[in-house]
Structures are given as C-alpha cells and as structure tokens.
C-alpha cells in the first residue's frame, strides 16, 4: 500500500497546562482514529534552516515544517481525508501537506 508523508506546518506550543492537555488529547484521539495506518507517528520539529543553491535561510523559510508523520493509504485522496482531522488544523491555524512517497532502487 502506498505511503504518504504528513508535513505539518504552523501550530505551536500551547501556553497553559490545561491547553497543552487538551491538545495532546486531541492528537491522541486523531492518531488513534487512524490506527494502524500510521506507519510512523512522527514527531514535532524545532529550529529549521532551508538549504538552497543560493544559500541558507534561517527559520525554515516562509512556511517551515513543524512536524511530520507517515501513513499508509489506498490513494492520496484517502490520505487527505485522514489529514483533515489533524489537530494542527482543527485546533489552530496550521496546515498538513500530504505527499506520496515511493521506493527508489539504488541497485
């Protein structure tokens, strides 16, 4: 089955312990609803730098990645449906970029 990376953009650390607990519960519920399709639940990302031919941009550029996950889905539409419930969207103003991965034979 194809694999899709979820690249999370935006979001942030909740300020209060209550808000943090609410966010963590929402992430747990969302990930639980996807279940075994999550091949790698991923992790948050911190400081980013974007490296290009022209140089290095601090802070990851205009839309830095804030985390990632890896899911299996029948097609990109199914993966997008999974991503729609992500708390980075439902609890904030972030986004999830969904992209199919593929095997490369370096033979």
Quick one: how many beta strands? 6
| The CATH top-level class label | Alpha Beta
Report the principal-axis shape: flat
Q: Could you tell me the mean pLDDT?
A: 92
At the fourth CATH level, what is the homologous superfamily? Dimeric alpha+beta barrel
Unreliable spans: none
Number of domains: 1
Largest sheet: 4 strands, antiparallel
Calculate Rg over CA atoms: 15 Å
Distance between the termini: 22 Å
Strand content: 25-35%
Put simply, the count of helices is 3
Task: Describe the 3D structure.
The chain is α+β, with helices and mostly antiparallel strands and 107 residues long. It has a single domain (3-100), classed as Dimeric alpha+beta barrel (Alpha-Beta Plaits, 2-Layer Sandwich). It has 3 helices and 6 strands; from the N terminus they run βαββββααβ. It has helices spanning 17-34, 76-83, 87-90; strands at residues 3-9, 38-44, 49-52, 55-58, 65-72, 95-100. A hairpin with a 2-residue loop joins strand 3 (49-52) and strand 4 (55-58). The chain is flat, with a radius of gyration of 15 Å. The protein starts with a strand and ends in a 7-residue tail after the last strand. The relative contact order is 0.32.
């Amino acid at each position: 089955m194809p694999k899709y990376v979820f690249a999370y953009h935006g979001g942030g650390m909740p300020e209060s312990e209550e808000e943090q607990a609410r966010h963590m519960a929402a992430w747990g519920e969302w990930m639980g609803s996807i279940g075994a399709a999550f091949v790698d639940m991923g992790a948050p990302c911190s400081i980013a730098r974007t490296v290009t031919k022209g140089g290095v941009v601090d802070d990851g550029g205009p839309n830095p990645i804030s985390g990632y996950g890896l899911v299996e889905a029948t097609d990109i539409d199914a993966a997008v449906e999974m991503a729609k419930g992500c708390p980075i969207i439902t609890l904030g103003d972030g986004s999830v970029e969904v992209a199919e991965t593929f095997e490369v034979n370096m033979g």
